[in-house]
Specification:
two-stranded antiparallel ribbon, mainly alpha, 6 strands, 553 residues, 5% strand, four-stranded mixed beta sheet, 20 helices
Length: 553
């Protein structure tokens, strides 16, 4: 039977029916793609929400929350000057919407002020903390769309889905994306800037300014982004030059993007205090040489430059580290790659390596190498020179960009390439789901999984104070009425959760009897006051793979 044209009721030509079927198929594929993207982000949202609800404050969260609340309610920059205000404004917005009681007259340190806001001002600490975490969760989901779009630009819809799946099931991103901290917002904004710089190859007038704004937002969240500024300027210049414009236009575009980034930093400080009242802290570390010159030449507000001096002071300290069972003072140059090897799912490592090879081999992907691989390599190299071996949170941009690189595998025309990629993505998903809800202490199967992470790493890689609430539940359910000795690392107040304990480090060893509860980061430090107590105790359990419970006779 002859088909009719829907528009005029006339017989359809031979080409119209196949064209209609193709359009319907295309619409069907678009709907299917959208459903897959929504499903992956919904899974990630559920994982982060479940994690955020149960976890007690990590070490840094109370400070960021009180600083953000103070910025919004009192327009006062005095707390936490070592980081610019934008990320804390976002965190504080969530907390302020919860309607906290805030004591503006409190004069303690930033750590004391955070504790005062959460635990001493009549607020529901967990409710307020969850409200502060929600904006970061939402940002983390938005950055998932950036990873998807970046990978789709490079490798098509299949590559976008593969990259988004690796991102959505990344234990590190889930762990830190569910906290009211600055690491994931900074990394996500940085990846966004790289993606927009890549897009500037085709539409520089639109995407160069957007890339500069995203870079500025990252810089207005953490000043550790400063080494990325010349990298992004180079990428912007490369994109403009690749769009067949002159070298002079490329340089001007890079300078314009940098100027926009500086403007965003200024705007973030002025949003807190339009008059920019600021008093330099009396205990600010002195800097000299090139550092002093850099501080004075940077075109940023005085609070930012004083924050740089604080960060330089932190870098000059010798912090304690722990890697593969060895405690040390100072830093190890290979700590960052070693920690990433432990904390990254095996499937992501395999797909990332294959994606890097594909990016080098395939002409379609080769132009993206400076953006995806070059930026990652430079920023990792800078991170490896840092003095704080505390966790992969400082390089959380790595699993994001590694997911984008992995998308290139879907373009390889070997017979089993896509099937193998699918199996590896499924392996990552299973590995991630198995660690639920303990994402912070995740390690991959080659290193024994989350239960063994504390044997290899410490601090925010495994134990950042997140399980105090779970500890309270454990002691109440299994050890009611028993004497508890506690050494805890984190931002929570044990008594608030019902953990009433003594500190064994302040008692004679012969006085310590009963339950000895120790955060695994303290065990890793091999404190001479704790080592003999632990050696003479029996391990009887653990909480969240971050706290160990001993019984001491």
């Amino acid at each position: 039977m002859t088909s009719l044209s829907a528009e005029h009721g006339r017989p359809a030509s031979r080409g119209e029916a196949p064209a209609g079927r193709f359009a319907a198929l295309l619409r069907h594929r678009r709907w299917l793609l959208a459903l897959v993207v929504v499903a992956l982000l919904a899974e990630m949202a559920a994982a982060m929400a479940a994690t955020a609800v149960r976890q007690s404050p990590t070490s840094d969260e109370p400070v960021y929350v009180v600083a953000g609340v103070e910025y919004l309610l009192e327009h006062d920059l005095r707390h936490n000057p070592e980081h610019p205000p934008l990320g804390k404004l976002i965190i504080g917005a969530g907390a302020v919407l919860a309607g906290p009681d805030f004591d503006a007259a409190y004069q303690g340190t930033q750590t004391q002020a955070g504790r005062h806001l959460l635990y001493e001002s009549g607020n529901d600490a967990q409710r307020l903390l969850l409200a502060a975490r929600i904006p970061v969760i939402l940002l983390t989901l938005l950055f998932g769309l950036v990873v998807f779009a970046f990978a789709r630009d490079l490798a098509g819809p299949a590559g976008g889905v593969a990259a988004l799946a690796l991102y959505a099931f990344s234990p590190g991103v889930i762990a830190h994306g569910s906290l009211a901290t600055l690491d994931v917002p900074t990394a996500g904004l940085l990846v966004t800037s790289v993606w927009l710089a890549w897009r500037a190859r085709r539409r520089p007038r639109l995407y160069v300014p957007l890339s500069g704004l995203a870079l500025g937002a990252a810089l207005a969240t953490k000043m550790s982004v400063l080494p990325a500024v010349p990298v992004l300027m180079a990428l912007v210049a490369l994109s403009v030059w690749s769009s067949r414009r002159s070298g002079r236009a490329a340089v001007a575009s890079a300078a314009g993007a940098a100027a926009l980034a500086v403007a965003v930093v200024w705007a973030s400080y002025l949003a807190v205090d339009p008059r920019l009242h600021w008093t330099t802290p009396a205990d600010l570390p002195a800097v000299d040489g090139l550092r002093r010159l850099a501080v004075h030449l940077m075109p940023f507000p005085e609070p930012f430059r004083d924050g740089m001096r604080l960060q330089f002071g932190f870098e000059d300290l010798k912090w304690g580290g722990f890697l593969f069972g060895d405690a040390y003072r100072g830093t190890l140059w290979y700590y960052v790659p070693a920690a990433l090897l432990v904390k990254t799912p095996l499937g992501t490592l395999a797909l990332g390596a294959a994606g890097i090879a594909a990016m080098a081999a395939l002409p379609r992907l080769r132009p993206a190498a400076p953006y995806v691989l070059g930026a990652t390599a430079v920023l990792l190299a800078v991170a490896m020179t840092g003095s704080r071996d505390f966790g992969i949170r400082y390089v959380i941009f790595t699993p994001m960009l590694l997911a984008v690189a992995a998308a290139g595998v879907t373009l390889v025309r070997w017979r089993w390439a896509r099937a193998a990629a699918g199996v590896l993505v499924l392996f990552v998903a299973v590995s991630s789901l198995r660690t639920f809800p303990y994402y912070l202490p995740y390690s991959n199967e080659a290193f024994g999984g989350p239960a063994k992470t504390h044997l290899h790493l410490h601090d925010s890689n495994v134990d950042w104070g997140q399980d105090l609430r779970r500890l309270a539940d454990r002691l109440r359910d299994r050890h009611p009425g028993e004497k508890v000795w506690l050494v805890y690392k984190g931002g929570g107040v044990p008594a608030y959760y019902g953990v009433h304990a003594s500190d064994p480090r302040t008692a004679r060893p012969d006085e310590v009897h009963g339950l000895l509860v120790v955060s695994n980061s303290w065990i890793a430090k091999q404190d001479p006051r704790l080592v003999p107590l632990i050696r003479s105790s029996e391990r009887i359990g653990g909480v969240g793979h971050s706290i160990t419970i001993f019984r001491r006779p």
